[in-house]
Each structure stands twice: as structure tokens, then as C-alpha cells.
Amino acid sequence: MEKVSQPNWLNWIKELQFIAQAGLTYTRDDFDKERFERIRDIAAEMMSEATDLPLGKVKNLFCNEEGFQTPKLDTRAAIFQQGKILLVKERNGKWSLPGGWVDVLETIKTNTEKEVKEEAGLDVEAVRLIAVQDRNHHNDPPYAYNVCKVFMLCELKGGAFVPNIETLESCYFDLDELPPLATEKNNQAQLAMCFRAYQDPGWQVLFD
Asked: How many CB atoms lie within 10 A of CB 163?
């Protein structure tokens, strides 16, 4: 699977933000805190300048965490019926695998199952790990923070779609008849990977 390359300037800005946040977490010196806060502000200003996003929005997205910075976790469920994969239609008209951020107190397994229930109305069991991917290596556009995407093969147990605040409908698709995808969440290559895992009982987990 071809990896998406990130521009050097984005990597430099992300590293500055990481250094600043780590420094703010561990330093006990007030003068060092001022310096690390300024480094963080510079990183945010550079991001705003490079992306044309308002500085306040950049700070909210990019500089709103405390503690040692680690990637966020996102789980995606691959559910198949009669050789087709389930996708849900988001409110912007694009389609994606059911999934989302891993909530506090949830595991990879329970979060995957919870997101399917919330977005597709289905009861599933997450039974097999397909892949763990660095989002910025596979999806566009690149984010200012890192995300680990976890794809899980799930077995359908019951339930039915109910319209909700996140999704408008759900449907099963063949790989060669995919609708417009929310490619920032999942692209055709990632869905093809899920099809291969579903068809291969000896599937070996992929990871970056």
C-alpha cells in the first residue's frame, strides 16, 4: 500500500509542538516554561501562516493538550455481508467505515463495537485485527497531530440502522462500486485491505 508523504514543514512544526509540550510537562523552572510556551506559540503561528487557518483555531486543535504528547487512537469496523462491506453515510454526503476516536474507559474492541452501534445501529463483535496504521502515512490531508488507525474485522450479531446525529444511512458495497468516500478517514486502498483480510482466514496483521 503506497504511503502518503508529508511536507517537511509540517513535520518540523509538529516536532516543535512536541518539544514544547514535553518541555511544559516536565520542566519545573518558570523561565523554561516561558520559553517552551513561546516555542509552542511559534509552532501555532507557523501552522496558521502555512494553512491560512485562524490562529485561534490552530491553537484549539494543535495546542490544547497537556502531558506527554502521544498519537490519538481511531478505530474502524469492517463488517461484511454476502461479500460486501458496510459503509455509513455522513452528513457531508461522504461514506466511511463506522468508527471514531477511542473514548476514555473503552478498549480497542469495545470502542469499535460501540461506534458501530452508534453510527450503524448494529450489534457486532470485533473478532480480528486487520491493521494498525499511522494515519498521516495513508490518508490525505495530513493532520497536525498523529493518529493511529486500527481496523477491526467484525461479525454481525443483529440490529438495524437508525438515523442519528452522525450518519444518514448505511449500505453494503462491493469494492468496485464504492460511493464517494470520506478519504480523510478511509480510502479505497484501505477498504481493499479490509476485503483481503475478510477473504483470507490466515490474514497477517499489517502495521506501520
From this structure: 10
Ramachandran quadrant class, 89 (left: phi over 0; alpha: psi -120 to 50; beta: rest): beta
- 9 in Cβ contact with 15 (< 8 Å): no
Cα 147 from chain centroid? 5
Please state the domain extents for the chain: 8-62, 72-207
Task: Indicate yes or no: pTM above 0.85.
Answer: no
Region class of 99: left (phi > 0), else alpha (psi between -120 and 50), else beta: left
Angle between helices 30-51 and 8-26 (to 10 degrees): 160
How many Cα atoms sit within 13 Å of 10 on the Cβ side? 12
Buried b / exposed e along 108-137 (16+ C-beta atoms within 10 A): bbebbbbbbbbbbbbebebeebbbebbbbb
Phi first, then psi: give them for residue 67, nearest 5 degrees: 85, 175
Q: What is the pLDDT of residues 22-75, one digit of tens each?
A: 888 889 999 898 998 899 899 889 888 888 888 888 887 777 777 877 889 999
DSSP β-ladder status, 122-134 and 147-159: antiparallel
Residues 52, 50: Cα–Cα separation, whole Å: 6
CATH architecture of 72-207: Alpha-Beta Complex (3.90)
